[in-house]
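help with these tokens:
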Amino acid sequence: MKRDVLKFVFLFLLFSSSVLAKEYALISNKNMHKLSLNEIKAIYLKKVTFAGKIKVLPLNLSSRDSIRANFEKKVLKMNFSRLKSYWTKQHYLGRRPPLTMKSQEAIKTFVKKVDGAIGYIDIQNLDESVKVLYTWKD
């Protein structure tokens, strides 16, 4: 009996954690092709400025946004202090970090209108007006 209860609790926790995991998407307008994880990292670190023949413009949410923190951790594989140090060094080389937008809606609107613009949003905010380039979970 006790063993069955523990088994039930374990399965419940396992199921609920997968259900609660949030999913995010890197988006663009319909003209951009899918990007690999390495391409995304290179674009967001401004090591690459073109994807094929399209000049890419990466967009960030504000530094306090939890989706941005998740993007930096899961996709860029960098924490806030490491990124801050990186961009301080890049500043002296004449490179600026990606543009910052105020909201997911602002990113989606900008991406729809500007060829080469890419940004990340919660997958719940997707619609058919944008193209998904890459997805990840919490």
Notes: The CA atoms of residues 72 and 81 lie 11 Å apart. The mean pLDDT is 90.
